[in-house]
Amino acid sequence: MLALTDNAVSVIRQLASTTETPETTGVRIATSDEETLSLALAPEATDGDQVVENQGARVYLAGDAATLLNDRTLDAAVEEDGSVQFFVAPDAPETPQEG
Hints:
The protein is of the alpha/beta class. The protein has 2 helices and 7 strands; from the N terminus they run E-H-E-E-E-E-H-E-E. The protein has a 4-stranded mixed sheet. A 3-stranded mixed sheet has the order 1-6-7.
């Protein structure tokens, strides 16, 4: 399942709260082809979407996007000009525990 960094949670919550949209607003990630993702604000999930929620930030994943982003991490950053950049990275490998 897609994980969200603290930065992504903060940015998504901020984006969802800056518009006159329902409380259920989040970002929806879909695929436009096998390798290209699109991201847009959405007032709610669409039928078949997988919902990822973390600390009030909602991400709605279309079917193909959910498969593509399984075991990935979504991060975000706000640039100096106010634009938002989202990044997808593989999850960091778990550190073996000694003991």
